[in-house]
Amino acid sequence: MESFTNTKSPLIGKKIERVRKLRGLTQEEVGQGLGMSKQAFSKLEQSESIEDERLQQIANVLGVTLEGLKKFNEESILHNTNNFYEAVNNSSVNNGYECTTVINNPIERIIELYESLLKSEREKVQILLEKTKR
User: Fold this and answer.
1) Fewest CB within 10 A of the end CB: N or C in the chain?
2) SS3 of 49, please?
3) pLDDT band at 29, cuts 50/70/90?
4) Is 118 helix (H, G, I), strand (E, B) or coil?
């Protein structure tokens, strides 16, 4: 089987981890989607290379394309996002009509996702603390 190894940018496992977090998924959720434990999926996220067949399964669970997962790069995402906003701002007045479309800031969305993950983790810790007190 063909495998994918990335030598210049972050390990494929790190890319999987970043996409998973940006999609708001836990290791347990993705692991369940792949039919494996959270621990087994955690090991995958630490891998330097993963077979394309397995990588395709991971991409499906994450809701992205195989190519998108392989080529994931935060810098290019920020670049594309900035270019998109510049294009929208530059064309906001077109033929005398003003564009009033509200566009959500992806950085704010990422912050919201991290805050919700943090809240969830705090709730889990609280539940565990309550169970240990009993």
Assistant:
1) C
2) strand
3) very high
4) helix
